[in-house]
From TrEMBL:
<feature type="signal peptide">
    <location>
        <begin position="1"/>
        <end position="24"/>
    </location>
</feature>
<keyword id="KW-0472">Membrane</keyword>
<feature type="transmembrane region" description="Helical">
    <location>
        <begin position="84"/>
        <end position="107"/>
    </location>
</feature>
<feature type="domain" description="DUF6533">
    <location>
        <begin position="48"/>
        <end position="96"/>
    </location>
</feature>
<keyword id="KW-0812">Transmembrane</keyword>
<feature type="transmembrane region" description="Helical">
    <location>
        <begin position="152"/>
        <end position="173"/>
    </location>
</feature>
<protein>
    <recommendedName>
        <fullName>DUF6533 domain-containing protein</fullName>
    </recommendedName>
</protein>
<feature type="transmembrane region" description="Helical">
    <location>
        <begin position="195"/>
        <end position="218"/>
    </location>
</feature>
<feature type="region of interest" description="Disordered">
    <location>
        <begin position="324"/>
        <end position="367"/>
    </location>
</feature>
<feature type="transmembrane region" description="Helical">
    <location>
        <begin position="119"/>
        <end position="140"/>
    </location>
</feature>
<keyword id="KW-1133">Transmembrane helix</keyword>
<dbReference type="Pfam" id="PF20151">
    <property type="entry name" value="DUF6533"/>
</dbReference>
<keyword id="KW-0732">Signal</keyword>
<feature type="compositionally biased region" description="Basic and acidic residues">
    <location>
        <begin position="351"/>
        <end position="367"/>
    </location>
</feature>
<feature type="transmembrane region" description="Helical">
    <location>
        <begin position="238"/>
        <end position="255"/>
    </location>
</feature>
<dbReference type="InterPro" id="IPR045340">
    <property type="entry name" value="DUF6533"/>
</dbReference>
Length: 418
């Protein structure tokens, strides 16, 4: 199922134009304006901006419900969810709480000053938490793409801590409750420090996207031989970078130049985009893994066997290595194909599994063929691996091992393993 939103570019450009109109709206009072002071047309535009943000977020939520259920169904159990699933739930539903709280405070009426004093920080706090979860997802993705490079790990840790301080300052410092003539409840920043939050977010996105894109291009000398996973990672990374960077730059301009009432409306669109882009990274990668598993692509060894015309025997005819007698070494036991149904792998009618037929027949089945193998020396063979890092695989890179069996799923993508 495709998760692409129809008319995405048109909707994005329309909403950004609405943000710019809100930012350029005149305000006669610079210190503490209300929504009514912006004029009737600007007040309606603020409401339209809120409704548009909620509509896009709701549409994407409903469109991704099937992918969300597929992600849940792939988990071993409710108490043993992968870290990817946990981060998906966190960024998705913390963002939902943020959008609902923000819209409830903006469209609600009858908030007393005492109630608004306790409520107005709910939206900024949940917004900051959603942004931090999104940055954790991007950090893990970037670290995995770099093949777990130590310098990338420490760079991301330092970058996360460095961006955390301005994000905290821009979110909670000097925040005040703002109410209009209908007694709604939003928040504002009279000292105009909120733009630091969006500046830090832009810096974080630029650095992480630059690192991941560089590693993807280095590992693929040209774009043409890129694997499906590399193309998906590059596409998702560029989409995340351009959309969120554009939104954060627009919010940075709004929080630097516009009124307090406009700030809360412009922030709502950024909250929706953070939720959408972050959850799509996990859902699209999970769907890619499911598609790869369903197609059952052969490994490199089996692909070479197919090209050269080599036929692999069915699994029930492959030799089984068992321990032999003392001093004789291991031996390989090959099942007798005369006692198997070749098409289905079921025992033939002469099988001794049927006790009734065994009593009627005194003829004994031939014993299985045996091949004794004496091991004189163990040899280790290294090979050039085309290993591609899982975007959420934080363990050590796999050592050279035997190629997987034909019936095994290719270990191209794994869940987050912190």
């Amino acid at each position: 199922m495709s998760l692409a939103m129809p008319s995405w570019c048109f909707r994005l450009s329309t909403l950004l134009a609405m943000i710019a109109l809100c930012a350029s709206s005149p305000s006669p009072v610079r210190d503490f304006p209300t929504a009514a002071s912006l004029g009737s047309w600007a007040n309606e535009l603020l409401h339209y901006l809120r409704v548009a943000s909620l509509s896009i977020a709701l549409y994407d939520y409903l469109a991704t419900l099937p992918a969300e259920f597929r992600l849940y169904a792939s988990q071993p159990s409710f108490l043993r969810m992968s870290n990817a699933c946990i981060l998906f739930i966190a960024v998705r539903y913390v963002s939902v709480v943020c959008l609902v709280a923000s819209s409830w405070g903006f469209f609600g009426t009858g908030f007393s000053p005492k109630v608004c004093q306790r409520y107005y920080l709910v939206t900024p706090a949940t917004k900051l938490l959603a942004v931090l979860i999104s940055q954790i997802i991007i950090s893990i993705r970037t670290y995995a793409i770099s093949r777990k490079s130590p310098w990338v790990f420490w760079t991301l840790c330092a970058l996360f801590i460095a961006c955390l301080l301005p994000e905290l300052v821009g979110t909670v410092y000097k925040k005040i409750p703002v109410q209009d003539m209908y007694q709604n409840c939003t928040s504002g920043n009279i000292v105009r420090m909120s733009w630091l939050h969006y500046l830090a977010a832009v810096v974080f996105d630029v650095v992480t996207t630059g690192i991941s894109t560089t590693y993807l291009l280095i590992n693929s000398p040209t774009l043409s031989p890129m694997s499906g996973l590399s193309r998906l990672l590059l596409k998702e990374g560029m989409s995340y970078f351009f959309v969120l960077t554009l939104v954060n730059l627009a919010n940075l301009y709004v929080f630097r130049t516009s009124s307090i009432s406009t700030q809360s409306c412009a922030a709502g669109f950024g909250e929706a985009m953070t939720m959408i882009m972050s959850e799509h990274i996990i859902l699209n990668l999970h769907d890619w893994r499911v598609i790869q598993a369903s197609t059952q692509q052969p490994s490199e060894r089996h692909e070479m066997d197919r090209i050269s015309g080599v036929q692999r025997a069915p699994s029930y005819l492959r030799p089984t290595v068992v321990s032999g007698a003392r001093g004789a070494g291991p031996r390989a036991v090959i099942p007798d194909s005369r006692n198997r149904n070749v098409l289905g792998g079921r025992p033939s009618r002469n099988s001794m599994d049927d006790p009734t037929r065994a009593k009627r027949s005194s003829r004994r089945l031939d014993p299985p063929l045996e091949i004794r193998v004496q091991i004189h020396e163990a040899v280790k063979i290294d090979y050039e691996s085309d290993y591609e890092p899982s975007v959420f695989d934080i363990g050590a890179p796999p050592a050279p091992i035997d190629l997987p069996d034909e019936d095994e799923e290719p270990a191209i993508f794994e869940s987050i393993a912190l």
